[in-house]
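Appendix B. One record, verbatim.
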Amino acid sequence: MDLKLRGRSALITGASKGIGRAIATVLADEGCNLVLVSRTAADLDVVKEKLRGTKVSVVTHALDVSSTASIDKLAAEHSGIDILINNAGAIPAGRLNEIDDKRWRQAWDLKVFGYINMTRAFYAAMKAHGGGVIINILGVAGERLESNYIAGSVGNAGLMAFTKSMGAASPTDNIRVVGINPGPVATERLETIMQKRAQDRLGDASRFREMYSPLPFGRAGKPEEIANMAAFLASDLSAYTSGTVITIDAGAASKGNAI
């Protein structure tokens, strides 16, 4: 499907792996020029090389968006961005007594405050040039609260509220703010989380694949399945969508299929 995104520009954080990399690939196929942000230059170079044949502009920045200085740099250099995808973040699994203050704050500085500060900076730029779309990649743990993923559940729930609050007001400025709550998605990060759960529940981290058995279709989602939704939401085919969070988990949360 032609989403009529050709020639638009998109900035994606956490773009070097998993969902972020998949979104970059889908948007490049749709003709979007890309600004890709991640903390590791070598990983970004790999993604840029894979996108070489798409004939779109690809600019990379090895920056940590938990830093206000990094966000200011991005906003100054790319003030004309049409689409912002907030995706960077790796909140650790664990219960309250397993995550100390320093680790909790570091995780939230990247994902929670990173999303908020990126939105603040780019919302202002979008408003100045007539509009845009902001898509926050969140997580289903924000609606299916889990004590063994306490920092992530609380952080994602907060970002859900942030997305809905911003998206309810943003049409006044011709800006749409939406979110996606992916369920379990087959990424390196999910494997790490499942290893932790397998260790907690089964006493053996190597049995992590058994953690997927309760899921619909017997599998985790694919990064491309999230990326395709992000591209649709970014397009004018979804022009009346703002202030909402879309869950993509094959109904697992509704059925209580926690893993």
